């Protein structure tokens, strides 16, 4: 997931009608961070990133007041919060926005907590999410050449390798071209989506991590997404019944049985699933909250459910007159950075 989503979310929040300049009125504090970009461009090494996070957090009195419970951090890449090595110490109470729901970046532990964090959708190309003028229009089911497709790199992942071999066995049913990301054979944006729309089902296996952008893209070419990623977590589960718009198949059973199952599904059932998908795909679009349905409105719904009236931490105390003090009985308004972190 590119950093453009983090910056896009920041731009939308800056313009939000729910934003306040009065810190004492805020339910949440959004902390912008582009740590993946900094790391990729060589701006800071891992040790320096860690030190920078700790230094900045120590300058934030409201972070100390709540223990970070009402602070929001975005970690939009496969590495997740692990980019901040000490996340488990300092951000273990904060709200993390991420597309990742399981172990990330080949780590043994996940930074995602289903009770406090929020899964956000992948960032589908804007050219495909424009109403009525998308780059590529869906094809009628009767004109689609393939039963299913998988468009992606093998990445030496078992599920993906099985799909590539399956496509060789059943080339008339499953399309799985070898994608080139450079050179004259590289698929352009339009060509990619033209391939994607040419099947009834779009297969979405696990890659380096559990989530895949292909799941979200499938809704805009109107093929039924088939998840082949056992640990995947999906966004906005409090409002979406994914059984109506997608299929999740065990990744351990990728083979002719899968194609036989998909082939047994009548076209009218496929059309019904596609129609349900049309109704909810607006939740994958990162656009202004002024639209009644968008990724931002979904995120705001989730945040509203996490709003607390009262905040505390191990380093905050309160007295009979309602004042909040620190361990030295200094009132909150007089706290000065740097402050010990909770």
From TrEMBL:
Topology relative to the membrane: Single-pass type II membrane protein
UniProtKB keywords: Glycosyltransferase, Golgi apparatus, Signal-anchor, Transferase, Transmembrane
GO cellular-component term (any): Golgi membrane
Organism: Punica granatum (Pomegranate)
Residues annotated as domain Exostosin GT47: 10-254
Molecular functions (GO terms): glycosyltransferase activity
Cited Pfam families: Exostosin_GT47
Protein name as it appears in the record: Exostosin GT47 domain-containing protein
Stated family: Belongs to the glycosyltransferase 47 family.
Coiled coil: none
Subcellular location: Golgi apparatus membrane
